[in-house]
Amino acid sequence: MDVEFVRSSRVLFERLTEGPVHLVVCLHAPPAFDGVEAVKGIRRFDATVPVVLASRVQNTMLNLQAIQSQVTWSVGLAGDVPVEEALSELVVDASEWIERQVE
Fold it and tell me: pTM for this structure?
């Protein structure tokens, strides 16, 4: 499985136009990055691609926003490791899940 990391919505949307994307993991890390807004943009662009919203913020408001933006899954990132490491673990788990779906 190929994994690509992008740092902007523009690059993500370009990638979505280039070919099939099997899963998007979107970080919600306010105020630096509003993952919910990114998910809304993805949904306007492609309503079929599975989207995981990953965040250390877990509260009712985020859960409601995630549902409203039609995320496939909302996942809490481990708070005891750096965010990069937590995202890497999530990508590994998601990759394994996708591979099992294909079998």
Answer: 0.82
